[in-house]
Amino acid sequence: MSNILAIAGRPNVGKSTLFNRLVEQKKAIMDDESGVTRDRHYGFGQWTGKYFTVIDTGGYVMGSDDIFEEQIREQVKLALDEASVILFMVDCKDGLTDMDMDFANILRELKKPVYVVANKADNQTLDLQSAEFYGLGLESEIYPVSSASGSGTGDLLDKVVEHFQDDDLENPEEGIPRISILGRPNAGKSSFLNALLGKDRSIVTDIAGTTRDAIHTRYKLYGKDFILTDTAGIRKKSKVREDIEFYSVLRAIQSLQDSDVCVIMIDATRGFEAQDMSIIALADKYKKGIMIMVNKWDLIENKESNTAEHFRKEILEKLGNPLSYIPIIFTSVTTKQRIFQAIELAIEVYDNRTRRIPTSELNEALLPEIDRNPPPALKGKYIKIKYITQLPTRTPSFAFFCNLPQYIKEPYERFLLNKLRGYFNFQGVPVKIYFRKK
Ligand code: GDP
Ligand code: GDP
Asked: So where does GTP 2 get bound (predicted)?
């Protein structure tokens, strides 16, 4: 079960307000298809040390009441299917409406944990009125909150995160890399999996959301053991194009949470798109290993020796400096160009992610660098970094012990991170550093 929280409810109850409160703030994602900026519909949240993905289903209900039912089925239901916990939001100011009742009936059928969130409980009177939502007949208690101010959300989240797993999801086959192939529809994910498997599998299912669980297939290729999380083959047929897009994102989120290394596959003829960026941002938040596979390289004509280099630079520019650790490989599944190297790279990223560096090695490499470039003094005080050690976390993180940890600023942190990456191979791996008092 993945850590996915969906916020559902009729329009205007305050879903996106709560969403924005729950997820870490980042700028809105560009919808490159229409050229307009639209709000984000999913993001990364954290509460009492538990991490989860939040989906705002509201962005997907746009029409009027009469097609409400249909829209629920087509779009919101997809999100609800993927969610592990649902927040059903209602509005204290409006009170209980028919549409809320309709919604409740749909949610009841899902047989998932549903929390009724009575929003806009801005004062005590409204707070008390929220009891009327017991009339929905859902099992949930009513949680009066004010998304605008944040009041009540803490109590709600305390309950919600009880359903979520700690930190990383458990890997039942510890030591064997779990690799997921993510990317937009048509990038070549299924073809890649088929090429690795060496036989064609039937990939299209007609029934929406039927094959819900990702398939984990264990492979042994050239002496390397790994597991591929296959969600690529599960595809929803739909008239509405955006459905497929949205669905692919949901699948990606789920399979991302469930793997060690994410291979983000890009169609070379389309380039790097907003959706790719948001999946990468999410993978980075979850501290997964990440690599980019630029597929269909055979379709790029008139390649010169530096075409790939240009392409790489363009992607790195879009990623920005903090994500420049992500390796990029150019492949053609059709001609089988570099497809095994892609797997090898994914396994290397896994090895980097599980690397443990002895304290002595860290100090030997980094203390002389720090001596040459010490942290700038602040308010006349000198900052002395004494030693460095890797923390026993699942993904690489390091503690720099020093006299005045609070005085170290971001540019110097970046300097240390670059040095760390320079000495040790953490290609494809988010690395975190902390400053601790000693
Ligand atoms: P959505 O359509 O369900 O996503 O709703 P929005 O988040 O867009 O909110 C609809 C309106 O309700 C906006 O004008 C919000 O400012 C307002 N709103 C959201 N939360 C609260 C709240 O806690 N109290 C009050 N008074 N207004 C709120
Ligand atoms: P998915 O939606 O990401 O699983 O994409 P598919 O594997 O279904 O591939 C979409 C289309 O791209 C199919 O017609 C594939 O034959 C084609 N395709 C996949 N990889 C390549 C490639 O490397 N080169 C070319 N020319 N076509 C490819």
From this structure: 183-190, 230-234, 295-298
> Do residues 15 and 9 lie in contact, with contact meaning Cβ atoms separated by under 8 Å?
yes
245 CB near ligand 2 (under 6 Å): no
Q: Note the pTM of the prediction, 2 decimals.
A: 0.74
- Nearest ligand 1 atom to the CA of 56 is 4
Determine the 3-state secondary structure of 309 from DSSP.
Answer: helix
Q: Does this complex have an ipTM over 0.90?
A: no
Looking at the fold, whether 339 and 216 belong to one and the same domain comes out as: yes
Domain of 97, in residue numbers: 4-163
Same domain as 203, residue 98:
no
In a domain, 173, yes or no: no
The DSSP-derived string for 222-258 is TTEEEEEEE-TT-EE--S-HHHHHHHHHHHHHHHHHT
Helix or strand holding residue 134 (H, E):
none
In this predicted model, what pLDDT tens digit does every residue of 78-89 receive, in sequence order? 778 778 999 999
Which of 134, 163, 192 is a domain's end point? 163
9 among annotated binding-site residues: yes
- Distance from residue 14's CA to the centre of ligand 1 (Å): 3
- Which residues does residue 398 pair with via DSSP β-bridges, in sequence order? 390, 433
372: amino acid identity, one letter: R
Q: Is residue 197 within 6 Å of ligand 2 at its C-beta?
A: no
Residues 342 and 328 in one domain: yes
CA–CA separation, 92 and 121 (whole Å): 6
Q: How far apart are CA 225 and CA 383, in angstroms?
A: 46
Residue-wise pLDDT for 129-177, tens only, equals: 899 999 999 988 999 999 999 999 999 999 999 998 776 555 556 678 9
* Total domains present in the chain: 3
More confidently predicted of 126 and 57: 126
> Residue 331 CA: which ligand 2 atom is closest?
23
283 is in an annotated binding site: no
Which of the ligands is closest to the CA of residue 16?
1
Ligand-binding annotation for 234, yes or no, is yes
Question: Across 222-380, where does the E strand assignment appear?
Answer: 224-230, 235-236, 261-267, 289-295, 328-330
User: Does 207 lie in the same domain as 348?
Assistant: yes
Tell me if 429 is assigned to some domain.
Answer: yes
CB count, 10 Å around CB of 376? 12
Higher pLDDT, 100 or 219: 100
